[in-house]
Hints:
The structure holds two protein chains of two kinds. Chain A is mainly alpha-helical.
Amino acid sequence: xxxxxxxxxxxxxxxxxxxxxxxxxxxxxxxxxxxALLMAVLTFAVSLxxxxxxxxxxxxxxxxxxxxxISALNVHYGLAVDGISVALILLTxxxxxxxxxxxxxxxxDKPHQYMAAMLVLEGLMIGVFCATxxxxxxxxxxxxxxxxxxxxxxxxxxxxxxxxxxxxxxxFLGSIFMLIGLIYLYNKAGGSFDLNTLAGLRLSMKEQSWLxxxxxxxxxxxxxxxxxxxxxPDAHVEAPTGGSVVLAAVMLKIGGYGFLRFSLPIVPDxxxxxxxxxIGLSLLAVVYxxxxxxxxxxxxxxxxxxxxxxxxxVTLGIFIAFMLVRSDNNLDxxxxxxxxxxxxxxxxxxxxxxMFSCIGVLYDRLHSRQIKDYGGVINVMPWxxxxxxxxxxxxxxxxxxxxxxxxxxxxxxxxxxxPWIALFAAFTLxxxxxxxxxxxxxxxxxxxxxxxxxxxxxxxxxxxxxxxAFAAAVLVLGxxxxxxxxxxxxxxxxxxxxxxxxxx
Amino acid sequence: MPNxxxxxxLLPELYLVVAACVLLLLDAxxxxxxxxxxxxxxxxxxxxxxxxxxxxxxxxxxxAFNGMFVRDRVAEILKVxxxxxxxxxxxxxxxxxxxRKLYVGEFYTLTIFAVIGIMLLVSAGNLLTVxxxxxxxxxxxxxxxxxxxxxxxxxxxxxKYFVLGALASGMLLYGMSMVYxxxxxxxxxxxxxxxxxxxxxxxxxxxxxxxxVGIGFKLGAAPFHMxxxxxxxxxxxxxxxxxxxxxxxxxxxxxxxLLESGMGDPSIAHHWQQMLAVLAVLSLAIGNLVAIxxxxxxxVLAYSTISHMGYLLxxxxxxxxxxxxxxxxxxxxxxxxxxxxxxxxxxxxxAGFECEEVDDxxxxxxxxxxxxxxxxxxxxxxxxxxxxxxxxxxxxxxxxAVNAGMLWLAIVGAVFAIIGLxxxxxxxxxxxxDKPVEGTEHKPQxxxxxRFVLSxxxxxxxxxxxxxxxxxxxxxxxFAA
Lengths: 504, 481
């Protein structure tokens, strides 16, 4: 019925919905909160409609909307989704509700602005996953920095200004070279930003290499990959809980998504030539950043580093597929790796979102993120302890949780390419367990040493709701990942087949 | 003897001259209490002039007075936006002028005379008309800068502006005389062909260099930017806002007339392309780097202007119709952003409080969330973050540079966009993340027209980020022939 503007609705509903939230003003904070929640729930409902109407058996882009935006420049307002986009959109709108509930009475200072920024951010992120025009993609990609900048800067911790400036400039630095690359491609294509047209363009190896690095820089900062990950711990530590959740759960995925939409189809030959580099950096992230996470004193920093390590699996899965297709022509393993990367993206969205929500719960009570300030929390907060332990297990990749599925698939695929790569990647199961569980041990178990911990109250209904929602997602995805894999299957198959196309 | 046709072509300018004289007379006979009439009349005069420009626009390019005056699409667009931004200036300036007892008729007449200069300049078909328009613009500006004659800062700025401006005018005139010596013509159309077949290429080239100095000075491109920070800071903000907007359009028009109409043949264009590329890089570097260490908001915006002129030069240096369209698009976007940025300062300034330090904006989001939000829009637009207007203007000039085979220049532009980002973000940081300083609980101006028009102006930057197509097409149509 309204399929031909479903995607526009998904993008603009939260963005426009932010206006009444802002208008509610600081005088009527509850009105602002309820309006924001209503908008987020409506967006989620629309994304469920999208899921139900979506035909997962077809690899084609669906719900296409294509209008001339700027006819003088042949820029299109082009939106369409495939299975991968739908999964990420669902993740975004799901997390969108939870961050608003999570911030309900935690944010007391100008809650209307906070909620409005969250809604705008949500809409723009959905836009990134829908855009089929490179310029539109870029506009969404950059525009979402503005609300995030405000979120960290206004409601963040003591070093928020440093963190948010670093976040903004770092990400902008990465993407501006992509813009030059896109302009170059636009001229090369005779005046088109359409991603399909760009994907069909023949490019020499030299051109591809330059473009590959422009894209790599843009998306590597976003993912983030070693060595351009340094903004992430700062941004996470200083961001308010909701900001961290969105950052980890959705924003990092945009980097991985960018690799799929830009690097792979547009510069496949350069991607193959430099796959070793990306794989090397991914393994470095998995192993080295794992060790760095081990020594963190700050819980948020620890989870932030664990995010970098887990996102290493995403880039590993994507680029290992290259090796498999191009050298061994092993399409099945390549598909496995790519699917693993996708599942890992979604699963990491839930788990990291949940971990940051948990830390937010602790922070709201003690106003400290230092591990040493806690200890014995399980004695006073048994329910919370249960969730915390559960998500920690998921974070370290326990079978039965979603954390296991993606990592296992990527490791299996790597094994077909090169057992050594698989060996290094599998280290994460040990290191991940070490840093996460050691944190749990120090925070949850033992005697209560800090008198303030003894006064902490267990989670209330609102917090429980958020954590239960995350837990349900992690568990369902862990024991029954089939629907998610099926949703993305056709798109991933097509993507893997495209990897074999030479463009020189 | 001018015939009726010439008069008709020149109608908007003639009308403005008459209107300015009438305003001057009215002012002399009106009591200061009724000055509001003059204010609204002046705005009306500008709007009517805008109507005359658009309504009387001929289909084809026409010339008057034996080619001295050209009326084409380029001139039309530049005039419309020069008049529009000046009307904005009038609206924004009034409360500021009243607070400082500068609310006098001269402000309006001098500004309108400057606008007439701009209109002549962008319509010039002859080197003499260029000079005539330029002098009318700059002489009026010198007087405007010194409007607050009791302020030593203002007088210093005016003297500095005058001395350097006279020097630049001299350079320009000297260059013109050499070009005339080499080619024997002052007419830009004849110059275009005569320049190719002249017998003294070195003389012509020297003339070109001197003319570029003049253009660089008017644009405020490094290394001819020295006057910009002092004049921006020293002038009353109500004058700074004018100097920072419409004259930039004029400078683009002047560069286009001299370089493209006069020296546009590819054999000569490649000389000035290189010179403009150097000016562009220097402006981007100096503008963006020096702005970082400034604490005075007006100086920050002054250095930001210099960097923006660097981007504009990126488009001009491409020396093709696409590049000119991009540069004009950029000049228009900058005029709108500049008026909005200074408009916010004018809205915040009160008697005895200039609001010209960056720190004066501390905690603005607490005091006046609406103005803070408008400034946020302006800053992100200046920084070139999508979906703001400023981003698409930057996109167009970068695209023009890449298309003209100057990929390296586009990369330089991109790198400095990142560096420039810092000081725009700092303004946002001060407004949103810092606490207000005790004792600076100044209430912003309550003038309804200012608040309303300023909101429209700032929101236009956001709206234009979504529908910049028509304006771009309009700009492109001017250079399509």
